[in-house]
Amino acid sequence: MANHRALWMRGRRFESARDYLVVGKISKPKLAVDLDETVVYLLRHFLDFYNAEHSTGFSEEHFFSYNWWEVLGISKERAYAEAAEYIKDKMKMYESPEFFDGRFHIEFVEGVEPALDLLCRFYDLHALSDRSPMLEPDTFNISSWLCAEDCEGGTYFPELPFPEDHEPLLLPMDKIVLTQETGLTKSQFCRQAGILTAIDDNPDVAQDYAKNGIHAIVLAKPWNRYVSKHPLITRVKDWQEACNILVPGKIKLPKAEKSVYI
């Protein structure tokens, strides 16, 4: 989308990211970012649990749909029950000595940390997730580890100035919305909040965004290979392609270390 708001402000086109950032204090457009499978991996860890419990061999590649029950060959009710058992098992670690020693497990999607560090300079970021409120401790830790710095404590983009409203945490808890608690769909929340662009992996959510006039950037996954064709749906292979659409100048993301904490 050549005329995206990241490229145009106050009737002026910005050819580079630095030019955009140094033009005084500008009200940034809002951007919604999904959590599970977009920022952090969830399904692969659920499958580790499910396969161990049922002696099966499912992987992400088997998932032609993100409706887990369709792939696992079980009822929707049973799938929810299995997910609840997984959540209970996952939450046990937050009561364990290993957790208090700092040995807990978060796996970020490749490239998401420098991508969000870049995007937060141009957008007011909001995380929008359908995840269960039961995962609140896990959600808190995701927020705590997503910082605007690389592994050596420096910014990923030293050549770009920080905006005045820059925060150390890229997605602080007050910017993370769990839709199950609001009673709203993601598109309804975005319309109320004035969010015109969203990044997600779910093709059904993307279609609903597009129907409601919200540009959906879909991060490529096996279950969204056949996402609906629509002018407001853009499927991208990774976070680099997403940033190329959203940020002027096509800034190359630095390579981040694989983000797995145990």
What does this structure look like?
This protein has helices spanning 17-21, 43-54, 68-72, 76-92, 97-100, 112-119, 136-145, 179-182, 186-193, 203-211, 239-246; strands at 8-9, 12-13, 30-33, 106-107, 124-129, 176-178, 197-200, 215-219, 233-236, 260-261. The protein has 2 domains: 27-40 and 109-261, HAD superfamily/HAD-like (Rossmann fold), CATH 3.40.50; 43-100. The chain is globular. The strands form 3 sheets. A 6-stranded parallel sheet has the order 6-5-3-7-8-9. Strands 1-2 form a two-stranded antiparallel sheet. The protein has 262 residues and is of the alpha/beta class. The longest helix is centred in the N-terminal third of the chain and has 17 residues, at 76-92.
- First-to-last CA distance: 40 Å
Instruction: Provide the succession of SSEs.
Output: EEHEHHHHEHEHEHHEHEEHE
In what range is the share of β-strand residues?
Answer: 5-15%
Structural class computed from helices and strand pairing: alpha/beta
Give me the CATH superfamily of the largest domain.
HAD superfamily/HAD-like
Largest sheet, strands/sense/barrel? 6 strands, parallel
CATH domain class name of the largest domain: Alpha Beta
Number of helices: 11
Average pLDDT confidence is 83
What's the overall geometry? globular
Total number of beta strands: 10
Share of residues in helices = 25-40%
- What's the number of domains? 2
The CATH architecture of the largest domain is 3-Layer(aba) Sandwich
